[in-house]
Amino acid sequence: MKQRVRNIFNALDQPVDAILLKNGTEPFLDDNFFYITGLIHGLFEGSYAVLFSDGSIDLLTTALEAESAKKTEAALHVYTTKEDREGILKPLIGSLKIIGMNFSGLSHQDFTLLQQLCPSAHFVDVSKSFSSVRLIKDSEELNRIKTACNIADAAMEKIPEFIHEGLHEYELAAEINYLMQNHGAEKPSFDTISSFGKNSAEPHYSHGDATLKKHDFVLCDFGATYQRYASDITRTFVYGSANQKQKDMHETVLRAQNIAFDCIRPGVKATEIHQAVSMFIDSTSFKGCFTHSTGHSLGLAVHDGAGFNQSSDVILKENMVFTVEPGVYIPGFGGVRIEDDILITKNGMERLTKSSQELREI
Amino acid sequence: MKQRVRNIFNALDQPVDAILLKNGTEPFLDDNFFYITGLIHGLFEGSYAVLFSDGSIDLLTTALEAESAKKTEAALHVYTTKEDREGILKPLIGSLKIIGMNFSGLSHQDFTLLQQLCPSAHFVDVSKSFSSVRLIKDSEELNRIKTACNIADAAMEKIPEFIHEGLHEYELAAEINYLMQNHGAEKPSFDTISSFGKNSAEPHYSHGDATLKKHDFVLCDFGATYQRYASDITRTFVYGSANQKQKDMHETVLRAQNIAFDCIRPGVKATEIHQAVSMFIDSTSFKGCFTHSTGHSLGLAVHDGAGFNQSSDVILKENMVFTVEPGVYIPGFGGVRIEDDILITKNGMERLTKSSQELREI
Fold first, then answer.
1. How many pairs of residues across A and B have Cβ atoms under 8 Å apart?
2. Per residue of chain A (362 residues), what is the pLDDT tens digit?
3. In a shared domain, residues A129 and A147
4. pLDDT of residue A334
5. Does B168 touch chain A (CB under 8 A)?
6. DSSP assignment of B196-246, as one string?
7. Chain A residue with minimal CA distance to B127?
8. Host domain of residue A57
9. What is d(CA A245, CA B47) in angstroms, rounded to the nearest whole number?
């Protein structure tokens, strides 16, 4: 993990004497805390990490998590009271002049408390350094992401077995989550989307109590969390035989995804991928039906800091991991989305989710 | 929802001209945003609510969530760009002198951005007002919590059917989550705990790949989220026949829970409940084996702002909802915890989770 810390310091806009990360209480946990410690289990609520430019880490936690914390390379400090904790933090950071913090992962209340602890320090936001370094995955991260992708593929493979007339959306979501957990996922990486018929036209719809009818679209968008890392996959099936419009929608989206795949390689701008996909869909009879971005980076967070969209300033590099998820949505009729997770390689890309992309009529 | 907003203003330490809530992006969603809007579905990432002392609400959201937002009583403003949003916020709050914000649910980055929008305003922390008002549940909240409790009970009832030699902890966790979702839960309210044998001695252990052996403890701690509200229940079974030590542990914890139940009524201090439970356990042969607080308030959050612990300043009132969860933990041997959710009534309390509390040997 020392290399990760050094990378964060190397990516800073301005030098800092140390970086202080505070992990809040659920749901305000800071992914960066887990990124630099590599910790797999535990919440570490109210724990602190102090990072130095040589890659060393001082970790402050309570007795509750001390056993897990021993698995890290960090210098471990166990505190029981607020006074204890301040007694440990003071000699570590009390005399420093410039302290980096992750302003986007820290509550304003915690910021104020830390300011009181170091009244003479100047605090600077280092959130951009974390998000840019985290875009490039190391081998340990890639292994976890690949396992998360395999779990999602295994669940997707089984979905057709559960499809039947009258199935409720929430029942299919429960089956998907169950399949992923039984294949080793800690949990779903986000609320599983299982939408039938015209509900599939709403990209942010999760699942409700709609029942499946013949010729409905069945849109399934889900992912697994494995050792804190996420996968994210979408397939759109048809229950029964697909009509021509459904086939055209699916074919268009699949072609759009392949256009993205053909463009993705190191050196290309993230905006270009989105433009290529948008322009293609707008050149078909489904003009205006693609209403979201083409994808997002994936890692400890499902939305891990960058995206294939109009306003991105990211240039693709080797070992970045993104989703590629074009879609076509027709309100009142339905939607098709096909989403895969990809790794950017030296000369192009590799698809990490490997589920069949053909239109399946179940 | 107007009454909820008025209650927040009435509970303030100092008057404010308005309260501004910003809902962040996952995981930084602010429960208070959902408390005052009553919204059940959607994430409302990057949405804002401006609250006034007459109970009125102005809600700023994007087109993505506009349809859902229409279900509230709020004045709705739909924005597309940052400039749009600022153009709506400026006339609402730009000239105000004192603006309340939830410092504990807002990132420091967002605080800084809002400060720039209202450079002449003084911002004060209103988080305590929200947490104290939210402790007292209204009838709509109670209905949702009761349903969440019923779902957890229904899952607990089925657990013995899944118990068999060689079962993995993660498999049982998957079964529990599946049962809850099929009984109408949106999701588990926290990571389901399913710990076998000596793992049950670690209160914060979730689940791993340990397999079930004869005479193991089976500790199951989980809850359902229903319309955003949580339940939280624990039972400890024994696989096969329990030995005397296991029976003694279970009996002690059950007696400790009943001691708490006998003390709970309006007017009693939260600290007294914890003291009564701790003193009882420390008077048995399990002295020192109860290592956490006796319970926590429950609502939109699983840990909803108060607890039965040594440092609480809460005095119990009608319509508060708490967990009561004494435990006894013996490292290397195992642990027993029994947890129920209770509603404080006019003269005492009502148990909302109704699963059998007897020691079950499966």
1. 95
2. 899 999 999 999 999 999 999 999 888 899 999 999 999 888 899 999 999 999 999 999 988 788 778 888 899 999 988 899 999 999 999 899 999 999 999 999 999 999 998 999 999 999 999 999 999 999 999 999 999 999 999 999 999 999 999 999 999 999 999 999 999 999 999 999 999 999 999 887 888 889 999 999 999 999 999 999 999 999 999 999 999 999 999 999 999 999 999 999 999 999 999 999 999 999 999 999 998 999 999 999 999 999 999 999 999 999 999 999 999 999 999 999 999 999 999 999 999 999 999 999 99
3. no
4. 96
5. no
6. EGGGGG-TT----S-B--TT-EEEEEE-EEETTEE--EEEEEESS---HHH
7. A109
8. 2-135
9. 36
Three-state secondary-structure class, residue B349: strand
DSSP A105-152: SSBHHHHHHHHHHSTTPEEEE-HHHHHHHHHB--HHHHHHHHHHHHHH
- Interface check for A64 against chain B (CB to CB < 8 A): the answer is yes
Q: Model confidence over B190-204: pLDDT tens digits?
A: 999 999 999 999 887
pTM: 0.92
Number of domains in chain B: 2
- The predicted model gives B273-288 an average pLDDT of 98
B359: in domain: no
* A178 vs B: CB within 8 A: yes
| pLDDT at site A205 | 80
- B171 near A CB under 8 A: yes
Q: CA-nearest residue of chain B to A179?
A: B174
**In a shared domain, residues B127 and B176:** no
Q: Residue A261: inside a domain, yes or no?
A: yes
d(CA A340, CA A355): 9
Q: Are residues A89 and A186 in the same domain?
A: no
Of residues B103, B109, B175, nearest to A127 (C-beta): B109
Do the chains contact at A107 and B112, CB–CB below 8 Å? Answer: no
Contact with chain A for residue B42, Cβ under 8 A: yes
Burial B222-236 (b: 16+ CB within 10 A, else e): bbbbbbbbbbbbbbb
Domain-terminating residue out of A71, A100, A135: A135
Sort B14 into a burial class: Cβ within 10 Å, 0-12 / 13-18 / 19+: exposed
Interface contact A125-B105, CB threshold 8 A = no
Domain with B108 in it: what CATH number? 3.40.350.10
Residue A360 falls within a domain, yes or no?
no
B153: tokens are 């009970």
B194: CATH: 3.90.230.10
- Are A304 and A297 in contact by the 8 Å Cβ rule? The answer is yes
Chain A interface test: which of B61, B107, B128, B205 (most A C-beta within 10 Å):
B107
Contact A109 B104 (CB under 8 A): yes
User: What average pLDDT does range B292-307 have in this prediction?
Assistant: 95
Whether A105 sits inside 8 A of B105 (CB atoms) is no
Q: Same structural domain for residues A309 and A162?
A: yes
Are residues A183 and A113 located together in one domain of the fold? no
Asked if the ipTM is above 0.85, the reply is: yes
Q: Residue A255 contacts by C-beta under 8 Å, 6 or more apart in sequence?
A: A280
Of B27, B110, B188, which has the smallest distance from its Cβ to A29's Cβ? B27
The per-residue pLDDT for A8 is 98
Domain boundary among B75, B102, B135: B135
B306 occurs within a structural domain: yes
Phi-psi region of B62 (alpha: psi -120 to 50; beta: other; left: phi over 0): beta
Contact A42 B204 (CB under 8 A): yes
A167 and A198 in a single domain? The answer is: yes
With beta carbons under 8 A apart, name residues in chain B contacting A170: 181-182, 184
Interface test with A, best of B108, B172, B209, B300 (most A CBs within 10 A): B108
Residue B76 is predicted with a pLDDT of: 95
Say yes or no: B245 and B314 in one domain.
Answer: yes
CB-based contact, A60 to chain B, within 8 Å: no
Q: What are phi and psi of B204, to 5 degrees?
A: -100, 5
**A159 and A129 in a common domain:** no
